[in-house]
């Protein structure tokens, strides 16, 4: 009996020592957090999403395991936000624009204000959320955002003037649908995943997207022309969020790791967008497609055509008690500052 008591004492002492060293029971199972992403596995954003997950696993010494589901295999793009809220996925990457009308504050980021690059759009998107802390995102934990370079027009027939847009069927999402309408074309709402087939079958005649889609989504194979209308360049803000309850349940040291790794992935996505835009341009030209540059006078016509969209957004936001004018001024000033290098 005395031997058994001594053995139990030794074992208990070792357990307490290990708990003190490791901060918890050494036999505790890893915390599993599923991650849903709509980008196809070969897309750079999908690869970055997976590398982010693997970095979290490494930095937490395996205390976190993140099964990764790209290509919309767990949640479709428009289902992602609610899917994370409901716990169908613990982490999700998608676009605010895929739930049009739901994110009144975040819609400001997608306005056709003339973003010059993915780096500028991504930096501004993250600064915007930190500055305004939108109530519409309070039910989840935002890990970070990223946003593509200027949305341009890619079409099966040449569009050299605003008059060429009349009646054109254009795939678009969110505010880009309003841009299409303001340019006197006909918007057809659909996510990026449906654009290739829609262009191939003639369901649409064009698409408004960053030029990276011409390679990243192979759309250069089903269009012939790109109109460089960057003066009305919109972006599409994309989120990486985690279920709020799952976030609150994580130990503080693991939360810090998530935030540190996420901060590091912001410039990686931004650089990825700009590199992908360059690759998309080169790939399209290699297939014999043409890139049309609008003359200054024509660019002004396009800019004037979409300006009511911005004013309309401001009025609608302010009617909901949101500082719409402050949102737009913040974005415009941030673009100007980053273009000037300040």
Keywords:
single chain, 342 residues, alpha/beta, D-Maltodextrin-Binding Protein, domain 2, 2 domains, 11 helices, 47% helix, 15% strand
Explain what the structure shows.
With 342 residues, the protein is of the alpha/beta class. It folds into two domains: 28-147 and 236-272, D-Maltodextrin-Binding Protein, domain 2, CATH 3.40.190; 152-235 and 277-340, D-Maltodextrin-Binding Protein, domain 2 (3-Layer(aba) Sandwich). It contains eleven helices and 13 strands. The strands form three sheets. The chain has a six-stranded mixed β-sheet with strand order 9-8-10-7-11-13, with helices on both faces. A five-stranded mixed β-sheet has the order 4-2-5-12-6. α10 (296-319) runs antiparallel to α11. The longest helix has 35 residues, at 252-286. The protein is globular and about 65 Å long. The chain starts with a helix and ends with a helix.
Give the C-alpha Rg.
23 Å
The domain tally reads: 2
Strand order of the largest sheet: 9-8-10-7-11-13
Helical residues, percent: 40-55%
CATH class of the largest domain: Alpha Beta
Task: Indicate the topology.
Layout: H1 2-22, E1 31-32, E2 35-37, H2 44-59, E3 64-65, E4 68-69, H3 80-86, E5 91-95, H4 118-132, E6 140-147, E7 152-155, E8 169-172, H5 175-182, E9 186-189, H6 195-201, E10 206-209, H7 213-216, E11 225-228, E12 237-243, H8 244-249, H9 252-286, E13 290-293, H10 296-319, H11 324-340
Parallel strand pairs: 1-3, 2-4, 2-5, 8-9, 8-10, 11-13
Antiparallel strand pairs: 5-12, 6-12, 7-10, 7-11
Helix pairs in contact: 2-9, 4-9, 4-11, 10-11
The gist of it:
Helix content is 47%, strand content 15%. It is of the alpha/beta class and 342 residues long. It folds into two domains: 28-147 and 236-272, Bacterial extracellular solute-binding protein, family 7 (D-Maltodextrin-Binding Protein, domain 2, 3-Layer(aba) Sandwich); 152-235 and 277-340, Bacterial extracellular solute-binding protein, family 7 (D-Maltodextrin-Binding Protein, domain 2).
């Amino acid at each position: 009996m005395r031997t058994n008591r001594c053995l139990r004492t030794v074992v208990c002492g070792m357990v307490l020592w290990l708990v003190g060293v490791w901060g918890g029971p050494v036999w505790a199972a890893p915390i599993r957090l599923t991650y849903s992403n709509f980008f196809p596995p070969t897309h750079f954003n999908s690869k970055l999403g997976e590398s982010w997950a693997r970095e979290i696993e490494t930095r937490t010494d395996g205390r976190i395991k993140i099964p990764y589901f790209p290509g919309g295999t767990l949640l479709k793009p428009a289902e992602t936000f609610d899917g994370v809220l409901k716990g169908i996925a613990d982490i999700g990457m998608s676009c605010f624009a895929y739930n049009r009308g739901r994110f009144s504050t975040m819609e400001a980021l997608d306005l056709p204000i003339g973003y010059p690059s993915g780096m500028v759009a991504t930096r501004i998107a993250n600064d915007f959320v930190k500055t305004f802390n939108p109530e519409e995102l309070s039910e989840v934990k935002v890990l970070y955002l990223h946003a593509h370079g200027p949305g341009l027009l890619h079409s099966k027939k040449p569009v050299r003037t605003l008059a060429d847009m009349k009646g054109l069927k254009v795939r678009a999402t969110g505010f880009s649908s309003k841009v299409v309408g303001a340019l006197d074309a006909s918007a057809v709402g659909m996510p990026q995943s449906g654009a290739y087939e829609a262009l191939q079958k003639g369901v649409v005649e064009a698409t408004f997207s960053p030029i990276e889609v011409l390679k990243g989504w192979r759309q250069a194979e089903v269009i012939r022309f790109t109109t460089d209308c960057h003066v009305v360049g919109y972006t599409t803000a994309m989120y990486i969020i985690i279920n709020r309850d799952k976030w609150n349940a994580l130990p503080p040291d693991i939360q810090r790791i998530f935030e540190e790794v996420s901060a590091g992935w912001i410039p990686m996505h931004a650089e990825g967008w700009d590199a992908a835009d360059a690759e998309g341009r080169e790939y399209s030209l290699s297939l014999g497609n043409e890139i049309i540059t609008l003359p200054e006078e024509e660019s002004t016509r396009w800019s004037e055509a979409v300006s009511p969209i911005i004013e309309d957004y401001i009025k609608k936001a302010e009617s909901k008690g949101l500082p719409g004018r402050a949102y737009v001024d913040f974005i415009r000033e941030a673009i100007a500052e980053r273009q000037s290098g300040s």
